[in-house]
């Protein structure tokens, strides 16, 4: 097993099973995430035999940075995995700190019509260590701490549930990467049974739902997941999620020209969301070479925004990052795979 994919409580159990004290797990975590050593033999407060056992049981193997692109403070990383698959992450600078968008799978099976990642089917899930290492490698590259994480890169995180939960627990651990739960956002197209599991985890993370359509007919057309879990059911589940967790949920809505961006759509969306503790994030669509969808015009987006506002819906327009460097949603990997 890779050491960066182990939660502290699992490491505690590992030590307890060997009749060692469980605080050894804390010591190992400090070496890994604070002092950042790359071998058990550098962990000088751990005795030789135990170092050897650890070295036998766990690996330090890291994914590798294959390529970096940069534009206006946005850095895009392409990673090569040990089996020569690729995933990507994007680093963004906000006024509140650095945030990273990480991938959760190699490819994606959700097949959203407008999304580049979904053109390449899922090859496999990422292990929790491969998600943790995206952060470790980028932090090492920039020599700065990252303060927030969005799970919004390639993949559907709820389709890789166990590994993503482990990942969240490792980065949220105050002795791990120590990113506060409220600085972690999970974005999903809405796999209903997994959303039900998620609301039982009692994590204080942020949830973002990729809604993208205000009615079920349109959502069916652009997001195949809607055929399995209908919009009514998704909305009822979001309501339940909010009641159970007491957290405000983000509704993502990508603005597609002539598809979902009319004033009628805005009104329909406002009615759908009325009374729910949500806020809407309007996302200017990043056009790709391969897909027929076009970005809605600035004015259209503003009109949509105004309509929602007038109807009392909390709404923001997503600041744009990195469209020049293929930072949008799976474009870099897509190019690399083709090449
Ligand atoms: N599978 C998850 C997370 C990855 S996609 C989800 O569906 O939420 C992250 C977000 O980017 C989703 O809202 C997705 O719909 C959106 N997206 C995909 N392609 C895009 C593009 N070309 N431009 C803008 N947003 C896009």
Main β-sheet: number of strands, strand sense, barrel status? Answer: 10 strands, mixed
Write the CATH fold name of the largest domain. TIM Barrel
Structural class assignment = alpha/beta
Q: Please, what is the CATH homologous superfamily of the largest domain?
A: Aldolase class I
**What's the N-to-C terminus distance?**
32 Å
Quickly count the helices: 12
Proportion of beta-strand residues = 15-25%
Number of strands: 12
Q: H/E series, N to C?
A: HHHEEEEEEHEHEHEHHHEHEHEH
CATH class of the largest domain: Alpha Beta
Mind telling me which CATH architecture of the largest domain this is? Alpha-Beta Barrel
Give the distinct bound molecules.
S-adenosyl-L-homocysteine
Overall spatial form: globular
Rg, rounded, reads 21 Å
Count structural domains. Answer: 2
Low-confidence stretches: none
Spatial order of the strands forming the largest sheet: 1-2-3-4-7-8-9-10-11-12
Structure at a glance:
By secondary structure, the protein is of the alpha/beta class. Helices cover 37% and strands 19% of the residues. β8 (184-188), α6 (192-199) and β9 form a beta-alpha-beta unit.
Protein architecture, described:
The protein is of the alpha/beta class and 339 residues long. The protein has two domains: 3-57, Orthogonal Bundle (DNA polymerase, domain 1); 64-338, Aldolase class I (TIM Barrel), CATH 3.20.20.70. The chain contains twelve helices and twelve strands. The chain has helices at 8-17, 23-34, 48-57, 128-142, 161-172, 192-199, 216-222, 225-228, 231-245, 263-273, 298-310, 331-338, and strands spanning 64-71, 74-80, 86-94, 97-101, 105-106, 124-125, 148-151, 184-188, 206-210, 249-255, 278-284, 314-317. The strands form two sheets. The protein has a ten-stranded mixed sheet with strand order 1-2-3-4-7-8-9-10-11-12. Strands 5-6 form a two-stranded antiparallel ribbon. β3 and β4 form a beta hairpin. The two termini are 32 Å apart. The mean pLDDT is 94. Bound molecules: S-adenosyl-L-homocysteine. S-adenosyl-L-homocysteine (SAH) is lined by residues 110, 112, 114-116, 152, 156, 187-189, 210, 212, 252, 254, 283, 285-286, 288, 328-329.
